[in-house]
Amino acid sequence: MKLFYDCNTATRLMIESEDRELTKREKILLRLHLMTCKLCRNYQKQMKGMAEYLNKHFAEEHL
Ligand SMILES: [Zn+2]
Q1: Which segments constitute the Putative zinc-finger domain (predicted)?
Q2: How far is the centre of ligand 1, averaged over its atoms, from the C-alpha of 42 (Å)?
Q3: Nearest alpha carbon to residue 15 among 36, 39, 46, 37
Q4: C-alpha 62 to ligand 1 mean position (Å)
Q5: In angstroms, what is the span from residue 44 Cα to ligand 1's centroid?
Q6: How far is it, in rounded angstroms, from Cα 19 to Cα 5?
């Protein structure tokens, strides 16, 4: 029984979520995977940190 996403699917969805709204099912399965997978949690943290850095950078540039 394949209940959770594997790491490839999880990371792909994290990247896609930047460009499109994930479906409810995708969000739930992704969250379940993140709860059980430390590697992908780290990856998500890195992605989030980078997005915040870029936002901050561009926000300051436009002041
Ligand atoms: Zn994973």
Answers
A1: 7-41
A2: 9
A3: 46
A4: 37
A5: 10
A6: 20
